Automatic annotation (TrEMBL):
InterPro entries: Ald_DH/histidinol_DH, Ald_DH_C, Ald_DH_N, Aldehyde_DH_dom, ALDH_GabD1-like, GABD/Sad-like. Belongs to the aldehyde dehydrogenase family. One of its GO terms (molecular function) is succinate-semialdehyde dehydrogenase (NAD+) activity. PANTHER family: SUCCINATE SEMIALDEHYDE DEHYDROGENASE [NAD(P)+] SAD. This is NADP-dependent succinic semialdehyde dehydrogenase. Residues 3-454 form the Aldehyde dehydrogenase domain. CDD domains: ALDH_SSADH1_GabD1. Keywords: NADP, Oxidoreductase, Tricarboxylic acid cycle. It comes from the Bacteria. GO terms for biological process: tricarboxylic acid cycle. Pfam families: Aldedh. The gene is gabD1.
């Protein structure tokens, strides 16, 4: 894929970029490594000042930045602006909380025969971030904000179809006051990732993307014995039980499936309705999906814009076509739109069987798969019948059912009577083939820290024999 801004609403190539040369890559790594040596010693107060200044700039420039993201990947202007504001809040959260989240953790000094004993969190160094296009700002910020506040420095290899957003992020961080080399964007193809990650000056990596990309980065990091965090997508269940507020569940289900034009890792993708309310749920769900307006994402009245890439649109279309050919039913949508750009209509598919690929695959577009469950056991069985385990939703007012879902759904996140959303205050990540490690909250900022054990002995016990 060329490194270029291509308007997905028209297919027009707006601007192309030359990849960084091998020497430019080496210069960037050297600059990052050298900067880390002094940056790691800056105070939390100083880092917080820079992070808050970056947040100020993001908020002040929200309209222009939103327009840029809409141009590059097709999300609606309203959702793009919300993403910019959320990114600013991410910087503010870590500016306010990093020092507390990384404070020394005391141990029982007496138990270990010490005058003092504690764990200290210290930054690892240069961290490579390989990021996707679907949330081109927020996804990168949820790495950058905690990493920078922890004292690490970052190198961003962003998706090739959002180069201007990638460059903007490095620029706004620099204008916020972070020293040169703290955060750099490298416009390079995926083939350059291995060279960067294997460099001895690079300490760790984080990736959000496809399973193959995660397998590659995870394998390289393992060979180099470097920590990594992987978020590899999901096929999240959205379960609706008879005791649920059905109208609220349906309204949320529409948003959960079509947010970001259906291109979200934690978007609900598989809708599982109890048999007692299945027909009513499908009827209401299809009605609201059909009412969505598809079109130019810069139009404030449009609900769903184009998919970000032509190949992505084609893959979604093929997944639906294959399922329908095998006997599934498209209750609405299901056919490519005859218009310029990479649009696909919001679609609801039912009558999906276990032998269809759609039963387990992630669909990265505005396509909802709907299933009928006879009881809570079958609902959980269907929910877990995928190799992914990122997020999940369950709607019920029954407290016993709520606990069953919390305990038995195989996912990194369970949202009860609400839509899965990433918050700076909550850890974000998955299980199974959705990856490992966590972003956000305290868990996220500690992922790229050395948890250093500190033991300070008592003067009168210095000569005691000790056993490892």
């Amino acid at each position: 894929m060329p490194i270029a801004t291509i308007n997905p609403a028209t297919g027009e190539t707006i601007k192309t970029f030359k990849p960084a040369t091998d020497q430019e890559v080496q210069d960037a790594i050297a600059r990052a490594y050298e900067r880390f040596q002094d940056y790691r010693r800056t105070s939390y107060a100083q880092r917080a000042e820079w992070a808050n200044a970056t947040a100020d700039l993001l908020e002040a420039e929200a309209d222009e930045t939103a327009a840029l993201m809409t141009l590059e990947m097709g999300k609606t202007l309203a959702s793009a602006k919300a993403e910019v504001i959320k990114s600013a809040s991410g910087f503010r959260y870590y500016a306010e909380n990093a020092e507390k989240l990384l404070a020394d953790e005391p141990a029982d000094a007496g138990k270990v025969k010490a005058a003092q004993a504690y764990a200290r969190y210290q930054p690892l160094g240069v961290v490579l971030a390989v990021m996707p296009w679907n949330f081109p700002l927020w996804q990168a910020v949820r790495f950058a904000a905690p990493a920078l506040m922890a004292g690490n420095v970052g190198i961003l290899k962003h998706a090739s179809n959002v180069p201007q957003t990638a460059l903007y992020l490095a620029d706004v961080i620099a204008r916020g006051g972070f020293p040169d080399g703290c955060f750099q964007t490298l416009l390079v193809p995926s083939s350059a990732v291995e060279t960067i990650l294997r460099d001895k000056r690079v300490a760790a990596a984080t990736l959000t993307g496809s399973e193959p990309a995660g397998q590659s980065v995870g394998a390289i990091a393992g060979e180099e014995i470097k920590p990594s965090v992987l978020e590899l997508g999901g096929s999240d269940p959205f379960i609706v039980m008879p005791s649920a507020d059905l109208d609220a569940a349906v309204k949320t289900a529409v948003t959960a499936r079509t947010q970001n034009n259906g291109q979200s890792c934690i978007a609900a993708k598989r809708f599982i309705a109890h048999a007692d309310i299945y027909d009513e749920f499908v009827e209401k769900f299809v009605e609201k999906i059909q009412a969505l307006k598809v079109g130019d994402p810069t139009d404030p009245d449009v609900d769903v814009g184009p998919l970000a890439t032509e190949s992505g649109r084609d893959e979604v279309a093929k997944q639906v076509e294959d399922a329908v050919a095998a006997g599934a039913v498209a209750r609405c949508g299901g056919e490519r739109l005859d218009r310029p750009g990479w649009f696909y209509p919001p679609t609801v598919v039912t009558d999906i069987t276990k032998d269809m690929a759609l039963y387990t695959e992630e669909v990265f577009g505005p396509v909802a798969s709907v299933y009928k469950a006879a009881d809570i056991d079958e609902a959980i069985e269907i929910a877990n019948a995928t190799t992914f385990g990122l997020g999940s939703n369950a709607w019920t007012s029954d407290e016993a059912e709520q606990q069953r879902f919390i305990d038995d759904i195989e996912a990194g996140q369970v949202f009860i009577n609400g839509m899965t959303v990433s918050y700076p205050e909550l850890p974000f990540g998955g299980v199974k083939r959705s990856g490992y490690g966590r972003e956000l909250a305290g868990q996220g900022i500690r992922e790229f820290c050395n948890v250093k054990t500190v033991w300070i002995g008592k003067p009168d016990t210095a000569d005691e024999k000790k056993v490892e």
